[in-house]
Amino acid sequence: MGAGIRILAALLALLAAAGGGGMMRCAAQQLSATYYDTICPGVEKIVRDAVTLKVQQTPVAVGATVRLFFHDCFVQGCDASVIIVSSGNNTSEKDNPANKSLAGDGFDTVIQAKAAVDAVPQCANQVSCADILTMATRDVIALAGGPEYPVELGRLDGLSSTSASVDGNLPPPSFNLDQLTAIFAANNLSQADMVALSAAHTVGFAHCGTFADRIQPAAADPTMDPGYGSQLLAACPPGVDVNVAVDLDPETPKVFDNQYFINLQKGMGLLGSDQVLYADVRSRPLVDNWAANNTDFLAAFAAAMTNLGRVGVKTDPALGNIRRDCAVLNG
């Protein structure tokens, strides 16, 4: 049995065993992998081709798109509301301080894919930005060596985006295991989902300010490998430009693999919320298991991404629509 088949089989088993609240199951039942088969045939290939071109041009789009998807789903659900720009008297999610560090290439990935879809007459204004973001996220992960899993489609785009809605809904890098588990549980995601999804940090980067408190010589984090801490301090000395960033995974930063968990075993988790997954004995067994088995990790990650993609989904036309421009609410 090939690795891809094993991953898919494990993914199906994980999804079959997944729990979750009734509201989440109801929303998931309204999504379908074949949703666009008659509405916009070939939409997944259209998106994949656009995303492939974007990643070839700008490799950082991989981590940027994955992070954009997470930040979208955890605030008002997976409805592409994070892409909307501020206008008039309204400050959108995008301009909340917690989202200021979202890389522009994540937004551009969706915008380019949307343009490619709408260039096909039958598909114009028929595919939601939320679904395009979902497909694009899966595609960038696959392009970086991660799993290529089936995505559920049929989401509508949200009708509002406010900065206030972000507050308290995204986990900061200072969260401990209990806090991480609680904020994921609030979105019908298990602790195992949380640990798997945290491994999205196998790609992408983080700005120095998000981990500065862990590397200061006077109060160095004892869970961090001293040599790694010294490297980070050299890259991010006191007073460094706030725009300076380092790879979240110092070993294989462009490959979507289980190196994230191997790094945690070595005390080389960049953020406190990364390293706590190994430091806390309750989550350590998952870290050890996925550090030892990349196939198991990829299957668990794919299952967790499917669960994440169900969070706060809008399928009722009274609650959402298909945005003509992903960055602007329909007039």
TrEMBL record:
Organism annotation: Lolium multiflorum
PANTHER family listed in its UniProt record: PEROXIDASE, PTHR31517
Reactions mediated catalytically: 2 a phenolic donor + H2O2 = 2 a phenolic radical donor + 2 H2O
Bridged cysteine pairs (disulfide): C40-C123, C73-C78, C129-C326, C208-C236
UniProt-annotated location(s): Secreted
Active-site residue numbers: H71 (proton acceptor)
Pfam families recorded: peroxidase
Keyword Secreted: yes
Family: Belongs to the peroxidase family. Ascorbate peroxidase subfamily.
InterPro entries attached to this UniProt entry: Haem_peroxidase, Haem_peroxidase_sf, Peroxidase_pln, Peroxidases_AS, Peroxidases_heam-ligand_BS, Secretory_peroxidase
Organism classification: Eukaryota, Viridiplantae, Streptophyta, Embryophyta, Tracheophyta
Binding annotation for Ca(2+) 1: D72, V75, G77, D79, S81, E93
Residues involved in heme b binding: H201
Protein's recorded name: Peroxidase
GO molecular function: heme binding; lactoperoxidase activity; metal ion binding
Assigned GO CC terms: extracellular region
